[in-house]
Amino acid sequence: MPRLRRLSSREIVRILGDFGFKVTSMRGSHAKLVRVSQAGHRQILIVPMHNSLPLGTISAIYRQASQFLPTDDLRAAFFTD
């Protein structure tokens, strides 16, 4: 059964950057990542910029990102085999 990987915020930003998300702003300790879909819709994700993130936060980021991205590709980055 795959397990959720422990990721830092920088790793999550890098993973989402591979899917076309770019950091557009920072407010406090949170980064706003935005990409524009092919249909022209803005897709926005917020990532807290901390060295270590709780598994619940990583899971929440995964769930939000899976609304915009193919889950097979995203699962390979967030889960171990």
Protein topology:
Blueprint: E1 3-4, H1 9-18, E2 22-27, E3 30-36, E4 42-48, H2 55-65, H3 71-78, E5 79-80
Antiparallel strand pairs: 1-5, 2-3, 3-4
Task: Describe the 3D structure.
With 81 residues, this protein is α+β, with helices and mostly antiparallel strands. The protein has one domain: 2-Layer Sandwich (Metal Transport, Frataxin, Chain A). It contains three helices and five strands, in the order βαβββααβ. A hairpin with a 2-residue loop joins β2 and β3. It starts with a strand and ends with a strand. The mean pLDDT is 94.
CATH topology: Metal Transport, Frataxin, Chain A
Kindly report the name of the CATH homologous superfamily.
Answer: Hypothetical protein
What is the number of helical segments per DSSP (H or I, 4+ residues)? 3
What is the average per-residue confidence, as pLDDT, rounded to a whole number?
94
